[in-house]
Amino acid sequence: SQLGQLDRAEADALRAFEAMPELADAVDLLFVIYQAEGKLDEARRSFEEAESVGVLHKGARVLLGRLYAAAGDEDKAQAMYEKVLAEDPSMVSAEVDLARLLADRDDQVDRALKLAEDAQRARPDDPVIADVVGYLYQRKGRHEVALQQFRYAIDLSKQLDIAPPVLYFHMGVSLAALDRKPEAAAAFDRAIAIDPTYKDAKEARSQLGATKPAAEAKSSS
After folding, report:
1. Taking Cα atoms as reference points, which of 128, 119, 183 lies closest to residue 152?
2. What is the percentage of the chain residues whose pLDDT exceeds 70?
């Protein structure tokens, strides 16, 4: 995949997927490959056909749910995640994807947080899950606890040699909510440095005005 050999990458990922349906990394990789190939719609139709004849395993159902979500069909995505969790309540990838889907629904935040926390107990070293947990604490106004999760997610990401800008954006939002504006400015600036096209981070940074990032915030990020 990194070398651009997407056909070979897809074939390998599918073999891994078939051998271990609960392998979350295979779900993530296949989605990225289909996206890079411009095959999201084609993949969705193929998985739908397999589901219609009852041959889709639980990992593939999670991927189908993600394909529905990418197409904007949240109801079908949720139905697919719910189906997987009814079969296997400990399916971490379904818990995480459903938590993300429900995160912005005011009446579902508590359930989303429980799903994300359950997933984190199963996979404590996953930066994506830590970010989801932090975001849900943020949604509940628990910004200090959210910051702990975002910092933890950033530390985990550094170990993997990645730097998702969303982590710094989310951290900046909680810092701003706590009126720690210089630190928030540093976090937003870091997100923008990683992704200069990050519109939400730019807007959030602009709202802080001429606030000068604190040296402490720079070192913590």
Report:
1. 128
2. 97
CB 109 within 8 A of CB 139: yes
Q: Which one-letter DSSP state was computed for residue 108?
A: G
What is the distance between the alpha carbons of residues 124 and 1, in angstroms, rounded to a whole number? Answer: 26
CA–CA dist 117, 99 (Å, integer)? 9
Q: What whole-number distance in Å separates Cα of residue 211 and Cα of residue 202? A: 14
Q: Which two tokens stand for residue 132?
A: 């989801």
Q: How far apart are the C-alpha atoms of 205 and 138, rounded to whole Å?
A: 18
pLDDT digits (tens, 9 = 90+) for 74-92: 999 999 999 999 999 999 9
At 94-120, the pLDDT tens digits run 999 999 999 999 999 999 999 999 999
Residue 217, number of CB atoms within 10 A of its CB: 22
Burial label, 93 (beta-carbon count in 10 A; 0-12, 13-18, 19+): buried
Contacts of 95 (CB under 8 A, 6+ apart): 85, 115, 116, 118, 119
d(CA 208, CA 188): 10
For 111-169, the DSSP string reads: HHHHHHHHHHHH-TT-HHHHHHHHHHHHHTT-HHHHHHHHHHHHHHHHHTT---HHHHH
pLDDT of residue 218: 47
